[in-house]
Amino acid sequence: MDTKEIPGDSPKPNALWSFFASVKLTVTLLMTLAATSIIGTLIPQNESPENYRRAFGEFYYRLFEILDIFDMYHSWWFQLLLVLLTVNIIVCSLNRLSATLKIVFAKHPQFNLARYRGDKHKISRKDPRAAQELSPVIEGFVTKKFNYHRSDTTAEGFVFFAEKWRWTRLGVYVVHASVVVLLIGGLLGSLFGFEGFVNIAEGEMTRTVLLRNSGKPIQLDFDIRCEDFDVSFYPSGMPKEYRSRLSIVENEQTVLQKDVLVNRPLRYKGINFVQSSFGELPPERSIAAVPEEIALSLTSKETGMVYNKKVRIGEKITIPEDLGEFEIKEFKNSYDFRGKELGPAIIGTLTQKNGVPVEVVLPLKFPGFDRMGPMINPQRNDAVLISIDDMGPLPGQQTKRFYTGLQVTRDPGVWVVYTGFVLMIIGCFITFFMSHQRLCIEVARSGRQSLVTVSGNANKNKLGMRRKVETIADELLETGGHTGHNRPENHKG
């Protein structure tokens, strides 16, 4: 038996190409991905080994660890499934694309008149006008409704072919492309993205981020510093708003600074820093130096006027209204008043109008202490009252500090995924709501009248095309001026 290839026979397709072009492969991959997603939902991901050992025992823990079940969405086999599905979709699309492109970009589309004549849903109606009279009417109608048309003569008269929306045949390929783009975006996020967190105390910086579930540290190529943290509360005590002032530091230079709130993240080099939590650090002794200037309020008892002054330690200032002079002498970490501990205090000297210097004690915890001036020192008159407006942290003083909790994410495929969703919406709209429509209008002589036959087809929504054929037939009659009881008889072949 001769086994030579018969001329005209198409060569056998490549086995590998046929494998990836298989619809069965598509179904298998989709079912496998669905099953693995269910497993990933039932088995918590990225928990501690102790939790897995306690839940599954040592044997199954080792087995699941080998199979990367505990982090399956980043496992090599899950990513391989995504790659195979991507290749499968691309090959399936390319396998059918050539024939589609020939239809979409054909300069002279082929119309099979016999096929339209055999259409059982065609509509035939008689018209009293001659074929030559109907020709411009039909041509004008078709030109308005369709973007391509041509006419041919027949033995009985003539025929008009028309079509529109050839390009909608590409809608399904747009959907396929969107799926591929989504898969690529997911792969990019899986391979090169991460999700972690970091806690930074006020005034400190770090470049170490801990992965969300595993706790594994990763290093950024820049430092993130918390310059300041502020939190406000509702009367109930619930936090109202908390914000962090963050700085990005590269090569010991601040390159970016921004206030970060819950819904206002900081983005830098594709990495997002989102305000997610905060906490209070244990109180610590301040090591800050005494400020060069201390803000004081000096109130005249006679006039009620309040004078705000900034005083340097050791500097003597004159109080308005001829109320004397005041000088800060020292700061005491602990001041004892008649056997009672008042805590840190500023010690100053007030020189009154009579020239008598008296000691003034300004405890930080008791702003109104100086109102008892004469009771503390009988030589002191109460013509002027002194209090501290702002001192800042003092040596030995306990200060309240917070840390900010930031969620840190990097997903290089997020914009690829967004693009895929946009493509999918466009492709689905074209696929489900638009179709390639073809129309055939044949006019044949029938005695002194003309027989007009309208038929059409579409690659999708064939029922809708039938209704459109009926509508077109009605509109052609109206164009001819025939309505109501004068409408020719409708014949459905």
Structural write-up:
By secondary structure, the chain is an alpha+beta fold. The chain folds into four domains: 15-102; 113-165 and 435-482, 2-Layer Sandwich (TATA-Binding Protein); 194-285 and 399-410, Sandwich (Tick-borne Encephalitis virus Glycoprotein, domain 1); 293-394, no CATH class. It has ten helices and 23 strands. It has helices at residues 15-20, 23-42, 49-66, 76-104, 113-117, 131-145, 171-192, 373-376, 414-433, 462-479, and strands spanning 123-127, 148-153, 157-164, 194-201, 205-211, 217-233, 239-250, 253-260, 266-268, 271-285, 293-300, 306-312, 316-319, 324-332, 336-337, 340-341, 345-351, 357-363, 384-390, 398-410, 437-446, 449-458, 490-492. The strands form five sheets. It has an eight-stranded antiparallel sheet. The protein has a six-stranded antiparallel sheet with strand order 2-3-21-22-1-23. Strand 11 and strand 12 form a beta hairpin. Helix 4 runs antiparallel to helix 7 (171-192) and helix 7 (171-192) runs antiparallel to helix 9 (414-433). The longest helix has 29 residues, at 76-104. It is elongated. It starts with 14 loop residues before the first helix and ends with a strand.
